[in-house]
Write a structure and sequence with these properties.
The protein has helices at 3-8, 37-46, 62-71, 84-95, 107-115, 138-149, 173-184, 196-206, 220-229, and strands spanning 11-12, 18-22, 28-29, 32-33, 50-55, 81-83, 100-104, 119-120, 127-130, 154-156, 162-163, 170-171, 189-190, 213-217, 233-237, 256-258, 264-265. The protein is of the alpha/beta class.
């Protein structure tokens, strides 16, 4: 290979077979695929790599997320999608199999809990579980507050203060959780990034191990942090939240920084 070819060849990582990939800011911006994302997924599929596309947003089902990605031109199946709703359902099922929960959230969270056999109830639940929804009911927020103050453990799918919507950023799970924490004096347990728990659950879903895995993300404070703390190799892309000039502000570093997933050769 000539020196010129070496300069132009997209970057490859050390030999890994498993990829955990953030969705927004890495593969898509809203309904639009980031240039090179389609080819990156094709390379993963053609190489026989195991991979999951991760999202902290618990509102959507895997089928919803598949439709969104497919509509943008990215060819993925629902089996390659893993949300904080799925992680939360897996977590509570491991703690209290066949339990019950009072839920504030969207279809993705309700479906994930139903699939692990959880009973969703307003009375005597074993957990209060909070996720994203566009229609938070104030009456249900009051009921959640009452249950938490009565001692029911409080779980939130993720700590994100805001999330993307067609009309712009909207309050996220973390913002509503902060309100409930302030009102009750009890802190939520957050399952999603940057909690390493979601990485362990995702790897278990794939039947893989951290030493054989790479985390690809666009945020130093969530994606790269959780990858490092989970023992994964980390790749930072510059198509999302964290920009190159911001990297020096963090006490930790990704393994590699690339302009976009177009530069990653699995």
């Amino acid at each position: 290979m000539t020196s010129q070819e070496s300069k132009e060849r997209p970057s490859s990582v050390s030999v890994k077979k498993t990829y955990l990939i953030d969705m927004d800011g890495v593969l898509v911006h809203g309904a639009r695929a980031i240039p090179g994302a389609n080819d990156f997924i094709h390379r993963l599929n053609d190489g026989g790599h195991k991979y999951l596309i991760l999202t902290n947003n618990s509102r959507y089902t895997p089928d919803d997320l598949q439709h969104r990605l497919n509509a943008s031109g990215i060819p993925v199946d629902a089996q390659h999608l893993f949300s904080s709703a799925m992680a939360t359902a897996s977590f509570v099922q491991s703690q209290k199999p066949g339990g019950s929960a009072f839920v504030l959230g969207g279809t993705g969270l309700y479906q994930a809990l139903n699939e692990v056999g959880y009973t969703l109830t307003d009375y005597n639940p074993e957990y209060v579980i909070l996720g994203e929804t566009e229609s938070y009911s104030y009456d249900r927020i009051i009921r959640a507050s009452q249950l938490i103050m009565e001692g029911v453990p409080f779980i939130a799918t993720n700590p994100d203060p805001s999330g993307p919507a067609e009309t712009g950023a909207i309050p996220g799970c973390g913002a509503v959780a902060a309100m409930l924490e302030k009102a009750t004096g009890y802190m939520a347990y957050y399952v999603g990034k940057p909690n390493p728990l979601i990485m362990r659950l995702a790897l278990r879903y794939l039947d893989e191990h951290s030493e054989n895995a790479v985390m690809v993300g666009d945020r130093m404070d969530t994606d790269i942090k959780v990858g490092l703390e989970s023992g994964l190799e980390t790749i930072m892309v510059l198509t999302g939240v964290t920009q190159k000039e911001m990297l020096s502000k963090f006490p930790y570093r990704p393994k590699r920084v690339v302009n976009s997933v177009a530069e990653i050769i699995p």
